[in-house]
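User: Some background: our group keeps a shared notebook of sequences we're curious about, and every so often someone picks one and asks for a predicted structure to add to the entry. Today it's my turn. The entry only has the sequence so far, pasted here. Could you supply the structure so I can complete it?
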Amino acid sequence: MSSYIDVVHPERHAPYLDIPDDVVDYLHYLDFVKLRSPRTVNGYYLDLRGFFRYMMQRWQRVADDTPPEEIDLTGITTADIRTITKHDIFDFLDHARSADNGPKARARKLSALKGFFNYMCTQVNRLPANPTENISLGSPARALPKYLTRDEAVTLLSNIQSDFYERDYCILTLFLNCGMRLAELVTIDMGDFRDDTIRIVGKGSKERLVYLNDACLDALQRYKKVRTSLPNLVDRDALFVSKRTGKRLSARRIEQIVARCLQSAGLSGRGFSPHKLRHTAATLMYQGGVDMLALKEILGHENVSTTQIYTHINREQLKKAVAASPLATQKYVEQKPSAPDAPDPDDGEGSPDGSERQRRGKTDCQPPRRARCLPRSTPAHRAEKFHRQPHCPACQPQAEKQCAHIRKQRIQPIAQQSRRTALRCH
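Assistant: Of course. Here's the predicted structure to add to the notebook entry:
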């Protein structure tokens, strides 16, 4: 059973004997046809193994309290996989969230399931339908990477306490200047150097050349001089070896070295790790004016969009952008003195006739109420509205004139018409 790929020999891994045959076929497809890296294949193996362990409990073939490592998956057949529905996928993702898996971990698990079921449906035609079709978790929020400032990086290099100082200083220097990954640093061999360049084997066995600056060359020269004097050197091709055994350092051992150096520099407990040193190198280079495409090649990113995250943490550019505002130099304006208890001009107080509100087009008049006893279109109705409506002192004279005009124009003829109608009745 393989649960971890050795970064020193990534091509070596034990056969997958604890998973269904269909999953084994899929992993071989990823390895030989899609040419995925061993670490990528191993990641798919772990996620699919966890999914089918969950399905064994969901199918009630094992007790709920059975330890995961004791669940046998070799008995799962293609017919069993054919019964998996979209509801099962949703429940597994919810189970993953309850198990403290973050958004990125759940997205990775869903990606593994999508790849497997797509293979079963389209490549080998063992399933009639894909239960993961149209399932999406959305894009997880991309957090800004943690990194050390320039002063903190100098503090780290100045406070190394180790029994193999030259080696540990060289490790930190390469991390902080070249921005390489942990797996890339572990696999460096003595023959990977040519003049002032180093050949780095990155993800997917992709090679790239990275130039070494004076700090890296000086640290390498000092370390190589001490390395040759080791009495028990076993891995002669490996660059970084153990002082005690003479063998190549493992990834875990380098993590411990970095953690110890961070602690001696007073930078522990802040989430820094070897990968955060890679972020530090990228951030400091970008802040120093390195072009985005050049930074992409140095870091070994597949797409420039991955490198663009470092554009959001250039604090100097953000500071200059804010300082470029035309109002950046505006001085504080003291409040002008005013008379005590000065009325608000919007209230119209202090002007008995409401002239200020009339000048600004504002009155205290309420919206007219309907006069339901008369047709709304008649002049009498309009007169009724003016009678019912309260008016401010500024509007009252005008309202009275309009009401009188309406009465004189329409109400008196209406009364005369009523008298003529009464005479005809007699």
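Suggested note for the entry: The longest strand covers residues 197-201. Residues 367-375 have pLDDT under 50 and may be disordered.
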